[in-house]
Design a protein that fits this description.
- With 350 residues, the protein is α+β, with helices and mostly antiparallel strands.
- The chain is built from 5 helices and 23 strands.
- A 6-stranded antiparallel barrel has the order 2-11-12-15-14-13. Strands 17-18-19-23-22-21 form a 6-stranded antiparallel β-barrel. The chain has a two-stranded antiparallel sheet with strand order 3-4.
- A hairpin with a 2-residue loop joins strand 3 and strand 4.
- The longest helix is centred in the first third of the chain and has 26 residues.
- The chain is elongated, with a radius of gyration of 27 Å.
Length: 350
């Protein structure tokens, strides 16, 4: 009886397993498949950006000497660095030149400024002052309405058009605030020199824009800039799978960057201090170990931001920052953080 019981139990278990498999198959939608790992083209090429801000960005204060005393009408009214001026007295204003003209023409009359601060829209009232030195009316602000820079492409989507770069946002150098973009043009770049980094002095890639427009920049986020390429770009490293943050490990990796007109080249780096839960652009430490790269640049330099990092045949991240006190070392971002940020729509003025 025990033997028959065992046989019966085995048959019953097999039948149950077969039924379970059949049930799972019936519940799956037609054509369903396991999710595939995303593949992207690895970047490493330099690109340039010309951009126009979405509103006039306040980047700092500049006191006005009026009546023998230094004063600042804007600061007193509550205007802060990082604010974007979108209107004056209800009239849209789109350039620093137009802002200066409206202040000059209004003279001492109080002005109502409409500001965008993060996601809020605010109104403040200030009264310009006549400068003792030249008699012109001023409100005490440094502002920005355009800008330009050089960075490195991290990846290009498999469609050959959508791309991400920098690994951090375009920020104002004075205020450190993320620049709100109205529009941006992606330009070709020719790198002609490298200023080597040293302790206390970051290095820099020196280049010039080519005449060719190669795309449009659409989004500026803390985890990178994103846009569309209209002119297909060569990708030396080719198409690679995206590596997950849990797959990144301490040890040897490589990065791709462009230091001259020969295009992207691969160099060795070392990964350490990985913060798996990081959602920003400083997720792990990158140390340059490649002797050729150290000889040319001294380590990580400005313009290398966005240089893709490869480990075990996967694109795992990008270089984002350099340590001022040690130019051989900096920070990197998980490629997952960049891909997630690429889905964030650009905020518009209210």
């Amino acid at each position: 009886m025990n033997r028959n019981f065992k046989k019966t139990s085995a048959k019953a278990l097999l039948a149950l397993l077969l039924c379970s498999v059949l049930l799972c198959a019936l519940l799956l939608p037609v054509g369903a498949a396991l999710p595939q790992r995303e593949h992207v083209f690895v970047g490493g090429g330099a690109f340039g950006v010309r951009y126009v801000t979405d509103g006039i960005m306040v980047v700092g204060y500049c006191d006005v000497t009026s009546g023998g005393h230094a004063k600042n009408p804007a600061k007193a009214a509550g205007v802060r660095p990082g604010d974007c001026i979108t209107k004056i007295n209800g009239q849209s204003v789109e350039s620093a030149k137009a802002l200066a003209e409206m202040i000059e023409n209004g003279k001492e009359a109080p002005l109502t400024l409409t500001l965008r601060r993060d996601e809020e829209v605010k109104s403040v009232t200030l009264s310009p002052l006549a400068c003792d030195s030249d008699g012109h009316w001023r409100c005490g602000l440094w502002v920005r309405d355009t800008g330009a820079g050089i960075g490195t492409v991290t990846y290009i989507h498999a469609n050959g058009k959508d791309f991400g770069g920098l690994g951090h946002g375009i920020c104002d150098g004075a205020s450190g605030c993320l620049v709100p973009l109205s529009r941006g043009t992606v330009m070709g770049v020719s790198i002609h020199d490298v200023k080597r980094g040293a302790v206390g002095t970051p290095g820099e890639l020196k280049g010039q824009f080519t005449a060719a427009k190669i795309g449009a920049l659409t989004t500026n986020t803390p985890c990178g800039v994103f846009g569309v390429l209209t002119d297909p770009q060569p990708t030396t490293a080719g198409l690679l799978p995206v590596g997950h943050r849990d797959e990144l490990h301490e040890g040897v990796a490589t990065c791709w960057c462009t230091l001259d007109d020969e295009g992207p080249q691969e160099y060795t780096v070392k990964i350490s201090d990985i913060h798996r839960a990081a959602k920003d652009n400083k997720c792990f430490t990158v140390t340059v170990t490649d002797e050729a790269l150290l000889e040319k640049t001294g380590g990580i330099v400005q313009g290398m931001s966005g240089s893709p990092i490869i480990q075990n045949g996967k694109l795992v991240g990008a270089i984002t920052h350099v340590l001022i006190g040690n130019p051989t070392t900096g920070y990197g971002i998980f490629i997952e953080n960049m891909l997630n940020a690429a889905q964030i729509p650009m905020a518009k003025a209210g």
